[in-house]
Write a structure and sequence with these properties.
The chain is α/β, with parallel strands linked by helices. The chain has a single domain (about 1-210), classed as Spore Coat Polysaccharide Biosynthesis Protein SpsA, Chain A, CATH 3.90.550.10. It is about 35% helix and about 25% strand. The chain has eleven helices and twelve strands. It is globular, with a radius of gyration of 18 Å.
Length: about 270
């Protein structure tokens, strides 16, 4: 199993690296940082012992995720974890939905659990719950649910079916999850753990995908996602509190379980 971190423009922050204890985790699982050309020099000066892959400055997140998936042909390891670079990590307290900051032992347990899930083969894809809404789930996991930011895959079905992260320019994690559900591959989202992201205003200043994302592009891509999965997505208007100056933008409502059920009906 290989852990890939998508990072851009956040050399001095590296929140995921710190909060997921990836320098220590790299002694157990390979960790590779995926960098644009423009970051390589400074990143290597800051972290000289880091293993990294270089992509074009013009790559979108979808281009990068597709590039990572296709590393299977070079590594012969189909189990991949895709991480954003700006996540804080948490774990539930014992028998309690409240969250504590994750420690090294928690993260080792999490990565071991993900590897076990992928090796068992029942679930070919999944993720770790977002912090928002985590407290509304009493169970420690959910099947056929939203996965975002912290994602894991057995990439063989993705490559075998020719599913492309690049079919959309944003929400490609939604597109990939829906595509696999529609083809009969259930997913699992772990609620025993959780992740949270930097505030949008900080993200926009610091890097990430905001070098190409605009309100207009995101609105078009919401419609594009709906065109790709019309039976399971509804486009709605949503007011943003921080991003894009608090303007109204288009968001999507997704029926994850219905998407998987559709694949069983076909059988």
């Amino acid at each position: 199993m290989i852990i890939y971190v998508l990072t851009r423009g956040r050399i001095s922050q590296q929140v995921t690296r710190r909060c997921a204890f990836l320098d220590e985790i790299s002694k157990i699982y390979p960790v590779t940082y995926v960098l644009p050309d423009c970051d390589v020099r400074d990143y290597c000066l800051e972290y000289p012992d880091t293993k990294y892959l270089v992509v074009s400055n013009h790559f979108t997140s979808g281009d990068i995720r597709q590039f990572i998936a296709e590393q299977y042909h070079k590594t012969d390891d189909p189990f991949q974890i895709h991480l954003d670079d700006d996540m804080y990590m948490f774990r539930r307290k014992d028998r309690d939905p409240l969250l504590d900051k994750a420690n090294l032992r928690d993260m080792i347990d999490l990565f071991n659990k993900i590897e076990d899930i992928l090796e068992r083969g029942i679930y070919k894809h999944g993720g770790v719950s977002a912090r928002e809404g985590n407290n509304r789930k009493e169970e420690n996991f959910e099947v056929n649910a939203r996965a975002m930011r912290f994602l894991f895959y057995d990439v063989r079905p993705i490559l075998e079916h020719g599913i492309k992260f690049t079919d959309v320019m944003c929400r490609m994690d939604f597109h990939m999850t829906l595509s696999l559900l529609e083809k009969g591959y259930p997913n699992i989202v772990l609620y025993e753990y959780a992740q949270n992201q930097l505030e949008s205003s900080i993200r926009a200043r610091a890097g990430g995908a905001d070098h190409y994302r605009t309100m207009e592009m995101m609105n078009r891509q919401a419609e594009r996602l709906c065109q790709l999965h019309p039976k399971f997505i509804k486009v709605v208007d949503k007011e943003t509190l921080v991003s894009f100056g608090g303007k109204e933008r288009k968001d999507v409502v997704v029926q994850w379980k219905k998407a998987y059920k559709s694949s069983q009906n076909k059988k």
